[in-house]
Design brief:
By secondary structure, this protein is α+β, with helices and mostly antiparallel strands. The chain is built from 21 helices and 33 strands. It has a 7-stranded mixed β-sheet with strand order 3-7-1-15-12-13-14, sandwiched between helices. It has a 6-stranded mixed β-sheet with strand order 9-19-18-17-10-33, with helices on both faces. The chain has a 4-stranded mixed β-sheet with strand order 22-30-31-32, sandwiched between helices. It is globular, with a radius of gyration of 28 Å. The termini are far apart. The structure holds pterin cytosine dinucleotide.
């Protein structure tokens, strides 16, 4: 165990009192690592049952086609096959994600395509067999009659006047068209502004690429009359709600249990159709059924993310201050609206949060969700923030270039500064206290001290192209129901609830509606609770991911868990602490206000002999209840909910990249993150989160792209074609913490689980453009591939092309 990271550079009055104890801020090794490193994790694909059946899906080979017939006879007669189900066999079940806005067009996502296939890979039938091989073989025998029609392959094609509509009810293939802000002064501002910069900024469609694909083992429990689903998901309660709605069951008849999850990254925070079909098969056959997604299915037919296009303009004054901002945002959301968030989550977030940390006086943004014949999108890590940060940071750089000014100085002039918090933006959002200016200053200082500029000069002298880039941003985290309700989702997430109890041996069990899947919640929640109860974190067990254990909860996504789930756990622990103090006061004949909980005991303050171990209190509370006053008898337990308004963490990233002028290959040399997520509960875990996120963001900037051919067929369906980052593409990431505690968070912590991913694409892109600063080439898209660089430099210098 090490002590707290020496990083609190800001005064921290809010943390006085019980918050200022031992466990918060400690780099405890993750409790969950031992079982995972020893191969004792329990993943859905590892689970088995007597009489287990296996599911495989027959999928559409075409991106857009009318289904004229489905023949299942051959598949049913294949060896080992127990059943085959089509949409008609299951009664055409569907999921419907709803936004209560006129600008939103509701569309159903059928669990199995019945009359139309809307993307290549869409499930059309499910085969249930005694083993997975027989199921896959038989899935090939499902005979589908197709009437293909031209696929809608992208935003341009989808919005063309002659475009085929992905759903009959759409016009212009538009699922949502949201004019969020529309300042009428903007035309004048742009007409008179000394500087106007603009660009078309695009990000490719990518995969969240969790190590473990989606998976479900479903079984019918006759005793409880319950459909029990073991699902690799981030949102067990929403899987339960979706399943209950789609199959017409009461919610109590469905139980969702989440085993260990091998990553989700947002892909698993929406409800998948295959999992419900697996459950429907188990329900019909009254036998356990398992489905495990393979990599090809994952890349082709799972949820994708981040395919967006921004046409953005910003007007600046001669002093470098931004005067106005406007953006047309189009998100290629694929064929369906994912349950429960809807496909509007990307344009809504983009249009609302684009100004970010900058003071924008006049703003207009229109965000559209465009349907295409591709797999639907899910809110992949960062959702729209990697893109909006990229747009703002590119606009800042462009303005600086036009004004011949220092790009960091332009940022400083425009960002919300110290003394301006809380700041209400042009977007109506209230930004709580952060360290925007300080994190940029510190990043610049660290970059100088570490000799990045000297290294860049040295590399340039060697004939390489080298560049340094920055990005500054905030990350809205832990937002509860009031903020979420602005989106007007029929299912509005936000709050969460924790239950806590102490057993007769003094061990603590916390049950939460959040659902960690790699973020170390078993450790950090234990740290929060242990500190409030004065016990060791090893005495605290977290129970999560079980809809029968926890009250309704909203799972883990949107960097919400430490603020909301951790806040609810802290509140519940505080109530339990109150009970412990009352019990100790009664037994020690002292006042409850004089009792302190520390080192596993309840003590009378100032009297070292008057103490009782917490385990003894727990024993008495359960086994000798008559010794306690009636109002605190009968066990020790409490429940608390938390629904905060939300809080903004912030960061400044810096990168040094090198471009090989011969091949166009781009490599990352240095990476720096100055991060402020308020009170850091566990620095070790936060650093791991930052490094993981940065790696995903670097990959989005340099490697990852799901490609489709002209007919709409996916062509990156294996890891040979879809370039995932490896250690070889990464460099060490230096991390520095600032701590500005949030007053909107029970623990002072702000979320940060997406920050690495949010900042890295803009940072790397700016570094690439800096490396090309002596040319007329610059890029506003990601990923930037070696071929892009090569082609741009060839265009720039035809002689070079000849030489190559
Ligand atoms: N933490 C802390 N102190 C803070 C803030 C966070 O110690 N001040 C620690 C906590 O252990 C917390 C973790 O860092 O669990 C991340 O915190 P938080 O920002 O609350 O995010 P969530 O726990 O809600 O996790 C969601 C976030 C998102 S949105 C994605 S996407 C993502 C991510 O987490 N997917 C992940 N990190 C992931 N990490 C893994 N291994 N796998 C994924 O799928």
């Amino acid at each position: 165990m090490t002590g707290p990271r020496e990083a609190a550079t800001r005064p921290h009055d809010a943390l006085a009192g019980p918050r200022d104890g031992r466990w918060i801020g400690t780099s405890l090794a993750r409790k969950e690592d031992r079982r995972l490193l020893l191969g004792r994790g329990r993943f859905t694909g590892d689970m088995t049952r007597t009489g287990l059946l296996h599911a495989a899906f027959a999928r559409s080979p075409l991106p857009a086609a009318t289904i004229t017939s489905i023949g299942t006879k051959a598949a049913r007669q294949a060896p080992g096959v127990a059943a085959v189900f089509t949409a008609a066999d299951l009664g055409h079940p569907y999921l419907l994600a709803m936004l209560e806005r006129d600008e939103f067009v509701p569309t159903r996502m059928p669990l199995l395509a019945g009359d139309q296939a809307r993307f290549a890979g869409e499930p059309v039938a499910v085969v249930i067999a005694e083993d997975p091989y027989s199921a896959e073989d038989a899935a090939e025998l499902v005979e589908v009659g197709w009437e293909p029609h031209p696929a809608v392959t992208g935003i341009e094609a989808a919005t063309a006047a002659t475009a085929h509509q992905v759903h009959d009810t759409l016009t212009g293939n538009c699922l949502a068209d949201l004019l969020m802000f529309d300042d009428k002064r903007l035309p004048d501002i742009f007409a008179t502004a000394p500087v106007v910069v603009e660009g078309t900024f695009t990000s490719a469609r990518v995969s969240a690429l969790p190590l473990e694909g989606r998976a479900c083992l479903a079984e019918w429990d006759d005793r409880d009359e319950q459909l029990v689903m073991h699902v690799s998901t981030q949102v067990p309660h929403q899987v339960r709600s979706g399943t209950a709605q789609a199959l017409g069951l009461p919610e109590r008849a469905v139980r969702v249990i989440v085993p260990d999850v091998g990553g989700g990254f947002g892909l698993k925070c929406v409800v998948g159709r295959e999992e419900i079909v697996t459950a429907a098969a188990a329900l019909r056959l009254r036998r356990p059924v398992r489905w495990t997604e393979d990599r090809q299915e994952n890349l082709m037919a799972s949820f994708h993310g981040h395919e967006q296009r921004y046409g953005a303009r910003a007007a600046f004054g001669a002093d470098g201050r931004i005067l106005g901002l406007q953006a047309e945002i189009s998100c290629d959301v694929g064929a369906y609206s994912a349950f429960p968030f809807t496909c509007a989550v990307e344009p809504l977030m983009a249009a609302t949060e684009l100004p970010g940390i900058y003071k924008v006086p006049a703003y207009r943004a229109r965000g559209r969700a465009i349907a295409t014949n591709k797999a639907p999108t899910a809110p992949y890590r960062g959702v729209s923030r990697p893109q909006i940060v990229l747009v703002m940071e590119r606009l800042m750089e462009k303005a600086a270039r036009t004004l011949n000014a220092d790009p960091l100085e332009i940022r400083r002039r425009n960002m919300i500064g110290p003394g301006e918090f809380p700041y209400t933006g042009v977007n109506g959002i209230s930004y709580d206290e952060g360290s925007y200016r300080e994190s940029l200053d510190l990043a610049e200082q660290r970059v100088k001290e570490a000799g990045w500029h000297t290294e860049r000069d040295r590399l340039r002298a060697q004939g390489l192209r080298a560049g340094i880039g920055y990005a500054c941003f905030s990350e809205r985290t832990g937002y509860g129901t009031p903020a979420m309700s602005q989106r007007r989702m029929r299912m509005t997430p936000g709050y969460d609830t924790a239950h806590i109890r102490m057993d007769p041996t003094g061990e603590v069990i916390v049950t939460t509606g959040t659902c960690g899947h790699g973020q170390g919640h078993e450790t950090t929640f234990a740290q929060i609770v242990a500190e409030r109860l004065g016990v060791h974190p090893d005495q605290v067990r977290l129970r999560q991911g079980d809809t029968d254990l926890a009250s309704y909860g909203w799972g883990t996504w949107g960097s919400r868990s430490i603020v909301i789930g951790g806040g609810a756990a802290a509140r519940a622990a505080e109530r339990l602490a109150h009970q412990l103090r009352a019990a100790a006061a009664s037994l020690l004949e002292a006042s409850a206000t004089d009792i302190e909980l520390a080192d596993g005991a309840a003590r009378v303050r100032g009297d070292s002999r008057a103490a009782i171990p917490v385990s003894e209190l727990a024993r008495i509370a359960h086994f000798q209840a008559h010794r306690l006053p009636e109002d605190i008898r009968y066990g020790l337990e409490a429940r608390a909910s938390y629904d905060p308004p939300g809080t903004f963490s912030n960061a400044c990233h810096g990168a040094l990249v090198v471009i090989d002028p011969g091949t166009g290959g781009i490599s990352l040399r240095r990476y720096l993150v100055v991060e402020d997520c308020g009170v850091v509960i566990n620095p070790l875990i936060v650093d791991g989160q930052v490094r993981g996120g940065v790696t995903q963001g670097v990959a989005a900037a340099l490697l990852e792209r799901l490609s489709f051919d002209a007919e709409g067929q996916p062509v990156s369906t294996t890891l040979m074609d879809y370039l995932a980052p490896t250690a070889a593409e990464m460099c060490p990431v230096d991390i520095v913490h600032l701590q500005t505690p949030s007053r909107f968070s029970e623990t002072g912590a702000k979320g940060m689980g997406e920050g690495g991913m949010i900042g890295a694409p803009a940072t790397v892109l700016n570094a690439i453009n800096d490396a090309l600063c002596d040319t007329s080439v610059s890029f506003d898209h990601i990923p930037v591939l070696p071929s892009d660089v090569g082609a741009a430099l060839d265009d720039e210098n035809p002689a070079r092309q000849g030489a190559a």
